[in-house]
Amino acid sequence: MAVARPAPHAALEHLTVLYRGPLSSCNYGCPYCPFAKRRESPEEQEADRAALARFVAWVEAQPFEVSVLFTPWGEALIWPRYQQAVTHLSRLPHVRQVAIQTNLSGPLGWLADAGRTRVGLWATYHPGEVSLERFLTRTRELDALGARYSVGVVGVPAHLPDIQALRDALNPATYLWVNAFHDGRPYTRAEREALTRIDPLFEVNIRRYRTRGQPCAAGDTAISVDGHGTVRRCHFIPVPLGNIYEQDVRDLLAPRPCARPTCHCHIGYVQLPALGAQDVYGAGLLARIPEGPDWADPGAYLDRARQLWRAGATPR
């Protein structure tokens, strides 16, 4: 049977790109992270610098609107090249949003030169790596700069007092998200209730959704790109679709059902149309900042998550 292929240079108004270059080093030593305290050689740093510059130039040249989320294997914003890349992209007229994951350990003053309505920071607090007061000082700096950001933590049960203290001291207007912790055991009821009081959307993240065959925007209006320019539907499906430096990316895009048995990561499942994450996050989707019309009452979003889960997956 013939395989349907996308029409050449199909019309495209907007593309979301999750970029993950060669950078795989971090200045933190979190025990749950494989890149903790890893340092790169000058040669590795240069390779990442060259890959980043090539990607930024590619975004510059596109004839359609682009949004970019940097998802490095490590901490990127301690390096001036990433500060400059985010700033530059945020000032391009055809870039809707540019977001980046960070631990907030690097300088923040560069944001004053960025298009702050387009920049979003996905900031993570790591108890044991930075004091609560130091982290809160950084968030106050963001507030003073008028920056858009969300704050998050990994939901390690032993860190519950630290997470609660963060919520109590954080700007009440700042969303605090909690990522489920993978330690081989389910959360107790008390732990789940405590974390849900802190993050009203925590219930969405503790579920593993059966997604094979489900419609997904990944590979159609959202893609993952690595430092070589290789395009994949998302970070979790290794099969390449092509290369942005060798082909017109529009020729690689097409609606496709999910090929994975399950999906349990925020940057993956928010691409499921059935979940309707856009209604809660709106323009803040890439930076995990709820800015959508349903954020005041996310009940419908939670109901859709429950319906997806009832398809046969199990909670973590």
Strand order of the largest sheet: 6-5-4-3-2-1-9-10-11
Low-confidence stretches: 1-8, 312-316
**CATH architecture classification name:** Alpha-Beta Barrel
List the secondary-structure elements in sequence, H or E. EHEHEEHEHEHHEEEEEEEHHH
Assign an overall shape.
globular
Oligomeric state as shown: single chain
Fraction of residues in β-strands = 15-25%
Number-wise, the strands total: 13
Structural Rg = 19 Å
Q: Mean pLDDT score, rounded?
A: 92
By helix and strand content, what is the structural category? Answer: alpha/beta
The major β-sheet equals: 9 strands, mixed
CATH topology value:
TIM Barrel
Q: What is the end-to-end distance? A: 39 Å
Put simply, the count of helices is 9
Keywords: Iron, Iron-sulfur, Metal-binding, S-adenosyl-L-methionine
Protein name: Radical SAM protein
Organism: Deinococcus sedimenti
InterPro entries: Aldolase_TIM, Radical_SAM_PqqE_MftC-like, Radical_SAM_STM4011-like, rSAM, rSAM_sf
Task: Please outline what is shown here.
It contains nine helices and 13 strands.
Q: Can you describe what's shown?
A:
This is Radical SAM protein. Keywords: Iron, Iron-sulfur, Metal-binding, S-adenosyl-L-methionine. InterPro entries: Aldolase_TIM, Radical_SAM_PqqE_MftC-like, Radical_SAM_STM4011-like, rSAM, rSAM_sf. With 316 residues, the protein is an alpha/beta fold. It has a single domain, classed as Alpha-Beta Barrel (TIM Barrel). It is built from nine helices and 13 strands. The protein has helices spanning 42-61, 80-90, 132-145, 160-169, 189-198, 202-205, 266-269, 278-281, 299-309; strands spanning 14-20, 65-70, 95-102, 119-124, 148-155, 176-180, 209-210, 215-216, 222-226, 230-232, 240-243, 256-257, 262-263. The strands form three sheets. A nine-stranded mixed sheet has the order 6-5-4-3-2-1-9-10-11, covered by helices on one side. The longest helix has 20 residues, at 42-61. The termini are far apart. Residues 1-8 and 312-316 have low confidence and may be disordered.
